[in-house]
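Recall from the previous lesson that a structure prediction takes nothing but the amino acid sequence as input. Here we apply that procedure to GNAT family N-acetyltransferase from Streptomyces triculaminicus. The sequence below is the only information supplied.
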Amino acid sequence: MITTRRARPEDAAEIVRLRRLMFADMDGRDSPGAWERDAVEIARRQLAADGPGLGGFVVDGAAEAGGHHLAACAVGRVEERLPAPGHPTGRFGFVFTVCTDARYRGRGLARATTEALLDWFAEQGVTRVDLHATPDAERLYRSLGFAEHSMALSLDVSGRARPA
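The prediction returns the following tokens.
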């Protein structure tokens, strides 16, 4: 039996470690940097906050595998938009990290943490959850009921001038 639990502020560094592994798996290169320190700080602060916002579910790693560490995590955020037909609360969920440490893969941990996160989203009044799936993870998400919704378009605005 897989035991998931709600992520706590003290899990922030391990969540960021798993997030770094996820990015390395996605693009084939490890990218350490200052972003990790900032991510730990933000995750710690947001996991400590009351109410909907950042939600995460984790599975603890085996103690004999080298001290306290996380085996897997699923992390997402509740976004509050204006209510609309079909979405009377205006709350939408976005899953942005699902990762299992390589030592624990193939045991259903990604499914268990993602299902716990989806249940939490439902408890928060979320009516739709979005995510971006890698080709390797698409089968898992489809088995949970995810399907194409619309064409996602993105724009990097980091280079745009900021008003003074």
